[in-house]
Design goal:
Elements: H1 10-18, H2 21-63, H3 68-78
Length: 81
């Protein structure tokens, strides 16, 4: 496990310090779960936007006559030997 520091109000810090060990562990678990969820949602949202962007580019490329074969030829030309 790793530790991070978060800035909170004096009131929250005091209440946390006054909590029992089991309450502090419970709060840490809740916070860790929320943080993990926020990062995973962000990653999934980013991947979703990337997929949609790639689909739009592929649609536009196909409308302009760029076939998969032509695209692969272009990519092959740019690959280092």
């Amino acid at each position: 496990m790793a530790t991070i520091a978060l800035e909170v109000s004096e009131e929250l810090a005091a209440r946390y310090r006054q909590a029992s060990d089991s309450e502090q562990k419970r709060l840490a678990l809740i916070l860790a779960t929320h943080l993990r969820s926020a990062f995973e949602a962000t990653r999934e949202e980013t991947l979703d936007r990337l997929r949609k962007s790639m689909d739009r580019v592929a649609t536009q490329a196909a409308a302009n006559g760029l076939t998969e074969e032509v695209l692969n030829d272009i990519l092959d030309e740019r690959r280092p030997s």
